[in-house]
Amino acid sequence: MDGQLLYVYAVTRPFTAALPSDVRALDGEPPALIEHRGLCAAVSRVPAAHFDAEPLRAHLEDLDWLAGVARNHQAVVSALATVSCPVPLRLATVCRDEDGVRRLLDSGSARFESAIERLDGRVEWGVKVYADSTVPERVEPAPEVTAATGREYLRRRLGQRQTRDRSWQRAGALSRALHADLCERAEAGRLHPPQSGRLSGASGENVLNAAYLVPRDHSDEFVAAVRDRTPQGEGVRVELTGPWAPYSFVGGPDGSPDSGPDVGQDVGPGRGRSEQEGS
Fold first, then answer.
1. CA distance 44 to 5
2. In the chain, which ranges are continuous DSSP H helix?
3. pLDDT digits (tens, 9 = 90+) for 244-277
4. 232 vs 82, 201, 205, 236, 237, CA distance in Å?
5. Is the peptide bond before 243 cis (omega within 30 degrees of 0)?
6. What CATH number corresponds to the domain at position 156?
7. What domain count does the chain have?
C-alpha cells in the first residue's frame, strides 16, 4: 500500500446488515471494515500526498478542500448509523496500515465500548436560533435637507436600531427558554459556540447553536417540541437539523473530550487532525 494511508471514519461493533448501496468513501469505493477484538473500524484508502502530516497541515487551511472531506466523512458516518452505532473519529484521522488501525482499536477499546453502550439507540439533533439583524439600506440625507427632514432621518435610524435590538432580545429570550425545555426532553444537551454567518452562509446572527442527545424512538416528540416553540414573523428564526450520529456526545454525556474516545466534537472546517500509527 505504498503511497497510501488508511483514513478511519468511525468505530462500531461488527454488524451483518448491508450499508446503503450508494455510500462512497473518499476513494470512491464503499468503506472497508477492519474487525478486531469485538470492534470494527470503517476505513478507506487515501493518498499520503494529501493526508500525510505535512501536506495535511497545508490542506487544513483550504476550507473548500476541508469541506469536501467533511461532507464525505459525514456521509460515511451517517450510512453506518443506519445499521450500527458508530463512534465518529476526528476528521482526517489516518493510520499507516491495517496494523495501525488495530493498534488504534486496542488503545481505545474501553473508551469505544463505553461510548457505544451510552450512544446506542440515540441520535443527535441540532437546534440553532438566529436573530434577523438586517436593516433597510442606509440612506444618507441630502446636503440640502431641512431640519425637519434631518429629524425624520434620525428617527428612522433610531427605529432601525431599536428593531434590531428587539430582535436580539427576542432571540436571546427564546434561546434560553428553548434550551432549558429541550434539555429536559433530551438525555443530554450541549452548547456550541455561535457560528459565523460568513462561514456557514446562513442569514441572520446565530444566537443559539446547540446539540441534543435524544433516544431515536423519542425523536418525533422532540421535533414536535421544537416546532411548537418556533415563533412566526418576529425577526427570529429557529433551524432544526438531524437526526445525526451523535458527534457532539462521543466524549461523554456533556460532550467533554476528556471523558471518552480521542475523537472530535464537531465535524467541519478547522476540526481536523492527523493521528498516524506505525510511523
1. 8
2. 48-51, 53-59, 63-81, 98-107, 109-119, 147-185, 197-200, 219-228
3. 999 999 975 544 443 333 333 222 222 333 334 4
4. 34, 22, 17, 8, 8
5. yes
6. 3.30.70
7. 2
